[in-house]
Amino acid sequence: MTNILHKIKAYLYENLLTKDNPNDYIARTVSERSLSVKQICESAVNRGGADISASAMEHATELFLKEWLTSYATAIL
């Protein structure tokens, strides 16, 4: 049995492009909230295969994002 990692909520809407089929629908996802860096790192560790702790992964990710943002801001100025 597979584990459910994250749920995706979607609403069905009538597909207006196919008027000949009244049973044709499209799904649009509903964004309820975003995951934080901490939540993503915890999920990665819980899923298995990570060789570092969630807190170490979170720290490394925060350092990477800070460096990337600094480099990006410098490049466009």
SSE order and pairing:
Blueprint: E1 9-14, E2 25-30, H1 37-47, H2 54-76
Antiparallel strand pairs: 1-2
Helix pairs in contact: 1-2
Protein name: DNA-binding domain-containing protein
GO molecular function, one term: DNA binding
InterPro entries: Bvu_2165-like_IHF-HU-DNA_bdg
Question: What does this protein look like?
Answer:
The model has no long low-confidence stretch (mean pLDDT 87). The protein has a two-stranded antiparallel sheet. α1 (37-47) crosses α2. It has one domain. The chain starts with 8 loop residues before the first strand and ends with a helix. The protein is built from 2 helices and 2 strands, in the order ββαα. The protein has helices spanning 37-47, 54-76, and strands spanning 9-14, 25-30. With 77 residues, it is an alpha+beta fold. This is DNA-binding domain-containing protein. Residues 8-68 form the Bvu-2165-like IHF-HU-like DNA-binding domain. InterPro entries: Bvu_2165-like_IHF-HU-DNA_bdg. Keywords: DNA-binding. GO terms for molecular function: DNA binding.
Shape: flat
Could you report the average pLDDT, rounded to the nearest whole number?
87
Assess the beta-strand content as a share of residues: 15-25%
- Our count of domains comes out at 1
- Termini separation comes to 51 Å
Order of strands across the main sheet: 1-2
Helix coverage percent: 40-55%
